[in-house]
Design goal:
single chain, Ubiquitin-like (UB roll), Immunoglobulin-like, PapC_N, mainly beta, globular, transmembrane, 846 residues, Outer membrane usher protein
Length: 846
C-alpha cells in the first residue's frame, strides 16, 4: 500500500485505522471481547510484511486493566467525562471487565427498588452487571465513551431535557462577577443643560461544592449641570446570602438576606433562613409561571424593574413595544417598573406577579418554610422574629388543599384554601387569609382577605387565560409588609382593598391575527386607584407582490398614584432585502404624536440595528439602535436627536467573569449570578462553541464560558464544526450537562490544534517504524498513523513540539518538530526518532 498522498489529506488520521479494518474485513477472524483478532496481512501491498504493527486493531473490544477518562453514555444520554476503571476479574486474571463504582452507579438514575437488589465484586467496589438483568456495558477507547445499555423500566423518569436528581451536577469551585451597566448622556438644546447617568447592578459570588455564596450590588450616579441641579451618587450591597439545593427534598435552602417567597403571603425582606420546594427541580411540564413585563417605549429608553427597592432587571430598549420575559420565576408580589425616556421623562407603573392556581400532583406535598427577622437596606433588624410555613397537598387527581401560617409576635396570619382541576374547564383556586395585628397607635386590627384565581388553555380556540384573579381585603386586614411599615412610621398607608387581574391571548389563525390583553386593577382604602391595561394586536398578510407584511397595534392606559397616562403604538412593516425590513409607525401619548419611518436589518446572528426618522409637533427626530451579542458582553447602544429639544446617547453592557482552577474567561451574561458552563478546548484558542444563543469562541488560553444555562435542564454545548479553523480538529464535539442552580459546570473537549504536514520517520539505524504504528502528542492524542516506508500524515503540529511513536503497546521513540516549520504542507518533513529511556506500557494502549 502506498503512503498517503497530499490529495488524501482531507481524511482524518483515525479514518486510516477504520480503513485498515474494513479492508481486511474478509480476512479477519472475528472474536469475542478479550480474544485476539487475527489478520491476513498477505492482501496488503507492502514491501516488508514483517514490519507491521496492528496490535491496536487486534483485540475484539478488549481494554487492558487501568483507569481511563471516558464519557458515560446511558442509552442515548451522556454523563460527564470521568475516570472509568477496568479490572481483571478474580476468575480470569487475563481478562478485563468494566468496574462501575458505587459513585458512578449513583449517577445512573436507577429506581430505589432496583438499587436494593444490586450485587458487587472486588470488595464491593464494582457492580456485578448480572444483578441487573438486561444491562450491558461496552467501552470504546477510540472515542472515549463507555456505552451502558439499561432497560428503561429500571430508570427513574427522564424526558428530552430533564434528568432525575441522581444525575444533577453541582459543578466545580470557582468565583464569578456578573454585571449589568447602563450609561446615558443627554443635552437639552433649549437652555444648554446637560448631564449623564451611570447605573448598574450585578452579583459577586463563589461556589464551593453544592453551596453558592452571593452578594448582590447596585449603584447609580447622576450628574446634572444647571442652576438648582443636584448630583446623586450611591453604591449599595443590596443582599448577602448563600444557598444550595437539597436534592432529597426537592428543595432549596437559603441562608442570609432574602425576600419571603410564599404562595399565600406577600413578600418582604428578612434575614434568616428558608427551605422552599423548588419548582425548577420538577420536570418542565410541572413548573410554575414566570412573570413578564410589557409596555411601550416612546423613544430609546431604559427599563428598570425593581421590587422593594432592589433592582431585579435593567436594560435599554428601542422605541416601541417591549416585552421582558427574563425575570426569575421565584419572584412574587408587586413589581415596580420605571421607563426612562431619552428626553428625561419617566413612566412608572406596577405589575403583579400573580401565579397560576396552586395545584399539586396527587400524593405530593409542596412547601415553603422561613424564619428570621425583617431587615432594612442597611442590613439591620427591622421587626420581630417570625416563622412562616405554607404547603400544598395533592389529595387526588382533581383536588389540592393548601394554606399556611405566619407568626411574628404582634402579627399573626393564617390561610386555608383549595385548588380544583376542572379538566376541560381549566383550574380554579380559592383561599381565605385571616390576619391579626397589634399596633401601639391603632390597637388590635383583625380582618380577612379572600382570593379567587383561574387558569385555562382553550386549545380548540387557540386561546389562553394565563391568569385571572380577584382579591378583596377588609379594611382591618394587614399584610406583614403593611404591618412593618405601620410599626416603623406609625401610620397606615397603601392599604389594599380590591385587585382584579387577567392575562389573555388569542390566535385567529385563519386571519393570521393574534391578540394579547393584560389588565390589572388595584383599589386601596386610603389612596387613589391604580390601573394598568395593555392591549396588542398583530396580523401578517400579503398585498399583491408584497409578501409577509406585518401590521401591529399596541395600546395602554396607566393610572398610577392619581396620574393617568395613555399611549398607543401603530406599526406597519414589510421585508426588505435578505434580513431587513422597512416600517412606518406612529406613537401617540398625552404629550405628543410622532410619525416615523424606519429600517431594521440583521447583520448576522450576533448583530442587528435599526434606524428611524420622524416628525412630531415638537419637531423632527432621528434615532438609531444597535445590539451586538459579543463573546465577552452583550452590547446595546443608541442615539437620539429631537430638533430644538435634546440630543442623547445610551450604552448598556451585560457580561461577567468566571474564574476556576480549571481556567477563567470573560463572557456575556443575561441573568446575574446564574448557572454557567466552562468549556475547555484543550488550550486551543478561537474554537467556536455553541450553547445558548450565537456561538462564542475560546480565549487565548482555550477557555470559553456558556452563560444563562437553565438550571436542572439538560443543556448541550457543541463545537461549531462549520466555523472551525482549518488547522484545528475536534475528536469529540458535543457535550451535555444538567446543572444545579448557580453551578459552574466544567466540560473538556479534546481538540488538536496546529499545522498539518506529510513527514517521514526514520529510526536511529535507518529503518522505519512498523506499518500501523501511532504518533501521539504530549496530550496523548493520536496525530497520525505510520504508513509504508515510515511516511505519515501529521496533524496538530507546532514548532519545537515533541511527539512519541508507539507500537507493540509501548512508547518506542520520540520525534522533535523543527523550530521553523515549512509554510506549505506540500513539503515532506524528515523526522529522526530517538529512543526513549523507558519502554513501559502506555496508559491507554490496548
Amino acid at each position: 500500500m502506498a503512503y498517503l498522498s497530499p490529495a488524501s489529506r482531507v481524511f482524518r488520521v483515525r479514518l486510516l485505522g477504520i480503513f485498515i479494518v474494513a479492508a481486511l474485513g474478509g480476512e479477519v477472524i472475528f472474536a469475542q471481547a478479550g480474544e485476539e483478532v487475527q489478520f491476513n496481512t498477505d492482501i496488503l501491498d507492502l514491501k516488508d510484511r514483517e514490519n507491521i504493527d496492528l496490535s491496536q486493531f487486534s483485540q475484539g473490544g478488549f481494554i487492558m486493566p487501568g483507569t481511563y477518562p471516558m464519557v458515560v453514555r446511558i442509552n442515548e444520554q451522556d454523563l460527564p467525562e470521568q475516570p472509568v476503571v477496568f479490572r481483571a476479574p478474580d476468575s480470569d486474571p487475563k481478562g478485563s471487565l468494566v468496574c462501575l463504582s458505587p459513585e458512578l452507579v449513583g449517577q445512573l438514575g436507577l429506581k430505589p427498588e432496583m438499587l436494593e437488589g444490586l450485587t458487587w465484586w472486588h470488595d464491593g467496589q464494582c457492580l456485578d452487571l448480572s444483578s441487573l438483568k438486561g444491562m450491558e456495558a461496552r467501552g470504546n477507547l477510540s472515542n472515549g465513551v463507555l456505552y451502558l445499555s439499561i432497560p428503561q423500566a429500571y430508570l427513574e423518569y427522564t424526558s428530552d431535557n430533564w434528568e432525575p436528581p441522581s444525575r444533577w451536577d453541582d459543578g466545580i469551585p470557582g468565583l464569578l462577577l456578573d454585571y449589568n451597566v447602563n450609561a446615558q448622556t443627554r443635552r437639552q438644546q433649549s437652555h444648554g443643560d446637560k448631564g449623564y447617568s451611570l447605573s448598574g447592578n450585578g452579583t459577586m459570588g463563589a461556589n464551593l461544592g453544592a453551596w453558592r455564596l452571593r452578594a448582590d450590588w447596585q449603584t447609580r450616579l447622576e450628574h446634572q449641570t444647571g442652576q438648582g441641579q443636584r448630583n446623586q451618587q450611591n453604591w449599595e450591597w443590596s443582599r448577602y446570602y448563600a444557598y444550595r439545593a437539597i436534592r432529597s427534598l426537592g428543595a432549596r435552602l437559603t441562608l442570609g438576606e432574602d425576600y419571603l417567597s410564599s404562595e399565600v403571603f406577600d413578600s418582604f425582606r428578612f434575614s434568616g433562613l428558608s427551605l422552599n420546594s423548588d419548582d425548577n427541580m420538577l420536570p418542565p411540564n410541572l413548573r410554575g409561571y414566570a412573570p413578564e413585563v410589557t409596555g411601550i417605549a416612546r423613544s430609546n429608553a431604559k427599563v428598570t424593574i425593581s421590587q422593594q427597592g432592589r433592582v431585579l432587571y435593567e436594560t435599554q430598549v428601542a422605541s416601541g413595544p417591549f416585552r421582558i420575559q427574563d425575570i426569575n420565576n421565584a419572584v412574587n408580589g408587586k413589581l415596580d417598573v420605571r421607563v426612562e425616556e431619552q428626553d428625561g421623562t419617566v413612566q412608572k407603573f406596577q405589575m403583579d406577579t400573580a401565579s397560576v392556581p396552586y395545584l399539586t400532583r396527587p400524593g405530593r406535598v409542596r412547601y415553603k418554610l422561613a424564619s428570621g427577622k425583617p431587615s432594612d437596606w442597611q442590613h439591620r433588624s427591622d421587626g420581630p422574629l417570625f416563622a412562616m410555613g405554607d404547603f400544598s397537598w395533592g389529595i387526588n387527581n382533581g383536588w389540592s388543599l393548601y394554606g399556611g401560617g405566619l407568626a411574628a409576635g404582634d402579627y399573626n396570619a393564617a390561610s386555608i384554601g383549595f385548588g380544583r382541576d376542572l379538566l376541560v374547564f381549566g383550574a380554579l383556586a380559592f383561599d381565605v387569609t385571616q390576619s391579626r395585628a397589634v399596633l401601639d397607635r391603632y390597637g388590635t386590627l383583625s380582618g380577612r382577605s379572600y382570593r379567587l384565581s383561574y387558569s385555562k388553555t382553550f386549545d380548540e380556540y387557540d386561546s389562553q387565560v394565563t391568569f385571572a384573579g380577584y382579591r378583596f381585603s377588609e379594611r382591618n386586614f394587614m399584610r406583614m409588609g403593611e404591618f412593618l411599615a405601620a410599626r416603623r412610621d406609625s401610620s397606615l398607608l397603601n392599604h389594599s382593598k380590591e385587585m382584579y387581574t387577567v392575562s389573555f391571548n388569542k390566535q385567529f389563525r385563519d386571519l393570521g391575527l393574534s391578540a394579547y390583553v393584560d389588565y390589572q386593577h388595584q383599589t386601596y382604602w386610603d389612596r387613589p386607584v391604580n390601573d394598568r391595561l395593555s392591549l396588542s394586536v398583530s396580523r401578517y398578510f400579503d398585498i399583491g407582490e408584497f409578501r409577509n407584511l406585518s401590521l401591529s397595534l399596541s395600546a395602554y392606559r396607566n393610572t398610577y398614584n392619581g396620574v393617568r397616562d395613555d399611549g398607543m403604538y401603530l406599526s406597519l412593516s414589510m421585508p426588505f432585502g435578505s434580513n431587513g425590513s422597512v416600517s412606518y409607525n406612529t406613537t401617540v401619548n398625552r404629550n405628543d404624536t410622532t410619525h416615523r419611518v424606519g429600517y431594521y436589518d440583521r447583520v448576522d446572528d450576533r448583530t442587528n440595528y435599526q434606524l428611524n426618522a420622524g416628525t412630531a409637533h415638537s419637531g423632527e427626530s432621528l434615532s438609531g439602535y444597535i445590539s451586538h451579542r459579543g463573546d465577552v458582553a452583550q452590547v446595546n447602544a443608541n442615539a437620539s436627536y429631537q430638533a430644538g429639544q435634546y440630543s442623547s446617547m445610551g450604552l448598556s453592557l451585560q457580561g461577567g467573569a468566571t474564574a476556576t482552577l480549571e481556567g477563567a474567561a470573560l463572557h456575556r451574561s443575561g441573568m446575574t449570578g446564574g448557572t454557567r458552563l466552562l468549556i475547555d478546548t484543550d488550550g486551543a484558542p478561537n474554537v467556536p462553541v455553541r450553547g445558548y444563543g450565537p456561538s462564542v469562541r475560546s480565549n487565548a488560553f482555550g477557555k470559553v464560558v456558556v452563560a444563562d444555562i437553565s438550571s436542572y435542564y439538560r443543556s448541550k454545548a457543541s463545537i461549531d464544526l462549520d466555523k472551525l479553523d482549518e488547522n484545528t480538529e475536534a475528536t469529540n464535539s458535543v457535550t451535555q450537562a444538567t446543572l444545579t442552580e448557580g453551578a459552574i459546570g466544567y466540560r473538556h473537549f479534546e481538540v488538536i490544534s496546529g499545522m498539518k504536514a506529510m513527514a517521514v520517520i526514520r529510526l536511529a539505524d535507518g529503518s522505519t517504524p512498523p506499518f500501523g504504528a501511532t504518533v501521539r502528542n504530549s496530550k496523548d492524542q493520536d496525530t497520525g498513523i505510520v504508513n509504508e516506508d515510515g511516511s505519515v500524515y501529521l496533524s496538530g503540529i507546532k514548532a519545537g513540539q515533541m511527539m512519541s511513536v508507539n507500537w507493540d503497546g509501548r512508547r518506542q521513540c520520540e520525534i522533535s518538530l523543527p523550530e521553523t516549520l515549512p509554510q506549505s504542507d506540500q513539503t515532506n518533513l524528515l523526522l529522526p526518532c530517538s529512543a526513549v529511556a523507558t519502554t513501559e506500557k502506555t496508559g491507554n494502549e490496548s
